[in-house]
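Predict both folds.
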Amino acid sequence: MSVKILTDSTSYIDEKLRKELGIQIIPLYVSFKDESIKETEMSNKEFYERMEKGGIPLTSQPSLGELYDIMVETVSKGDELLAVFLSSDMSGTYHSACGVRDRVLGEYKDAKIQIIDARSNSMQLGFAAIVAARAGKDGKSIDEIVEIVKHNIKRSRFVFIPDNLEYLKKGGRIGGGAALIGNLLKIIPILTVKHGKTSILKKVRTKAKAINEMINQVLEDELKYSIKEIIVHHINCYDQAKELTKRLKAQLDHKIDIVDIGPVIGVHVGPGAIGIAYYTEDEIEN
C-alpha cells in the first residue's frame, strides 16, 4: 500500500518529472462551439490560432465520471489517494472531487482519500503536488503528507504579467473600459494569486518595468524567506522566458526551469504572458 498523488492539468508539471514522481493528472477542458477538448491534447499554438478564429472558449472541469474512475482505480488496488486541485475560486474541480470522494468512500469503507484546495494554479499548484509525491516516496503517511502540502501552499508565490490587457478583458477578468485605458497608457498589472483569486500586486507603465518589478519581488522573497525551488512560466514567449531566467540565475543560486502555461489558464491572460512561481523555506507573509 502506498500514497498516490493526483492533481489536475493546470499544474503544468514537466511531464518527465511527473512520471518520475508518479503524479497522476486529470485534465480540464476548453470548449469551443463545436468541440470540447482536453487541454493536454492541444498545443498553445493550435489553441490561440483556433481562439482567434472561433472566439473565446469556455473552460470546464473534469467530469464526475472521470474523477470517480481515477479514485476507484487507486483505492481498489489498496492504495491511498491524496488529490490537490486548483483553487476552488477558479474552478469547480475541488468541490466536485469532494462529492465524488464521499461516494467512493461509501463504496470502499476502508479507503483513504484526502483532497486539498491549493488556492492557486500553474506551478504554484504544481509544487504542492511535487512535494506531496516526494513525501510519499519517502514513506510519509497520508496525514503527514497533507500537512506538508498545506505548509508548502503557505510558503509559495506566483507572480505574472500579461503582454496586454485584451485577454483579461475577453475572459471577463476586467471591464472593457479598464482594459482600453490600460492599453492606451501602457499600464501593465503585475498579477498574483491571493486567497485563491487573481489579484493585482502592482501596476507599472511598461512590460519591461513590470519584469523588473517581478524580479525585485523574487529577490526580496529570497532575502526574507529563502527560496527552495523556482520556475519561470510563459505563454508563447520562450525567448522572453529564457532572458528572464538568465537574469534570475545571475542573482540566484538555483536551478530554474522554463515551463509553458496551457490553454485553460492561458485563455485568461493570453500569449506573451510571463511569470515566476516558487516556494520558500519560511512562510510568506501576504
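Second protein follows, with its predicted C-alpha cells after the sequence.
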Amino acid sequence: MMQGKKAFIFGVLNDYSLGWHIAKQLHEHGCETAFSHMPGEKFERRVVKAVAPFDPRFLTPCDVTNDADIAAAFQTAGEKFGTFDILVHSIAFAPADTFEKPFLETSRESWRTALDVSAYSLVALARAALPLMNPGGSIVTLTYHAAEKYIPNYNMMAVAKAGLECSVRYLAAELGRHPKHIRVNAVSAGAIKTLAASGTGDINSMIEHYQQKAPLPWEDGPTDVGKSALYLLSDLASGVTGEIHYVDGGYNTVGW
C-alpha cells in the first residue's frame, strides 16, 4: 500500500515509542523510512538499534527547539531522499516537575518548554518539510485525550496537547489549500506504556482502567495506533484532514 512512498519520522526513542510502531506499519507496507534523533551519542545508539529492522535510508540528529538543527535535518533529507511523502511527528516533553507539582505551580519556563517541544515543533517541522514534500503528502502527529478532559497529573502536558490539536486544524486548513494539498491529522492514543507516558504518573493503573472501561479490549494499543496512522498517512485517507482520530478502544466515548 505504501510502495514507493518515503517517510521522515521524528521522535522515536526505542521500540516502545508510538513513532516506532507507526514506522513498523509503514515499513511492512513498503514505505522507505528515515529518522531523526536527539543530538548525542547516547540517543544515536539507542535509535540506531531500535530502527535497524526498518533498514532506514538515513538517521540525522535534530533538536527540535533549535531552528538551525531543523534546517540541517531537512537539508540532509533533501540530499538523501530528494523529496518525500510523509512526516511523522511523535514528539512531546514537559519538565518532570510539571507532573509532580500542582498545575497551579507551573512555572513560566516549564510552560514555554512544554509548548515549544510538544506543539510548536509540529509547526516548525511542517514548515521545513513543505518544500520537500510531494503533492498529496501527509503529516501525522500524536495527541492524548487530556487535551480535552482533566487527567490527574497530566497538567502542563495536557495544555501542550491542546495546543498541538489546535495547530493540527490550522496547519490542515493552510496546507490543504496549498498547491501541494498536504493533509495534517492527529492520532489520539489511549493509555500506552511508553517512556514518555511512564513519567506522567501511574501508567499501569491508567492502562488497567482502560481495560475495564473501554468498549473494545485494550490489549495491543501500540499496534492499533500504528495501523490507524498507516491509514491516515496512506492514500486511503485522501479526503481526511484536520482530524483528531481516537485510537483508544472507544474509551473517549464512555462516561463512567
